[in-house]
């Protein structure tokens, strides 16, 4: 195996001794359409077959594998830091991990920062939309992260438990709108997008739209105050940090 950072593999997945894990990074653009950051996404590989997080992070009893998620976080940090980029790194973290794996996650974050190639202010933790029993404790964890200099995003706003009530509790720096809001807007119903944008404004959060797939999407969204853009139109997830040339 190469020593290159982008080919660094995590430990062998407990559920499947054949699977190797690796990071891919999808570009995120600012309102001038310049790349400002990347979302780290997990992939698994067995020979030539690639697996998505939905089939990696859930075990056979369909519960979330927090230990594996923690390994993925460490993997993304190492692979991003090794590329010595000044860009922002968005990392997904489940509410379950924030509640039950917090100390280990903090250890991984502190270790990555101590290596000197990434700073806390470069890291945005995206809180997944999963429901949790204890939103109060979730808020406390996020306050600790903010105090340590990290920024918080609320992922997939408009799906599952990622809603306005959670936004008011968590007060994230960034709200990532669920792709279903864009899909509805394409079909002529912008009411969900408008509601989400107004929820973001209420807590002074920046708005990130995901799933942008065409120039028509960009034109459709121009009427909203979008701070950050992400989607195949701007760039697909790749192991190396790529600045898209075509826009
Ligand atoms: Ca995400």
Automatic annotation (TrEMBL):
Keyword annotations from UniProtKB, A to Z: Hydrolase
Gene3D superfamilies: EAL domain
InterPro entries referenced in this protein's UniProt entry, alphabetically: Cyclic-di-GMP_PDE-like, EAL_dom, EAL_sf
Enzyme Commission identifier(s): 3.1.4.52
Domain EAL: 5-247
Pfam families with a match to the protein in the record: EAL
Source taxon at top rank: Bacteria
GO molecular function: cyclic-guanylate-specific phosphodiesterase activity
Top EC category: hydrolase
Protein name as annotated: Cyclic di-GMP phosphodiesterase PdeN
Species name: Vibrio stylophorae
Lineage: Bacteria, Pseudomonadati, Pseudomonadota, Gammaproteobacteria, Vibrionales
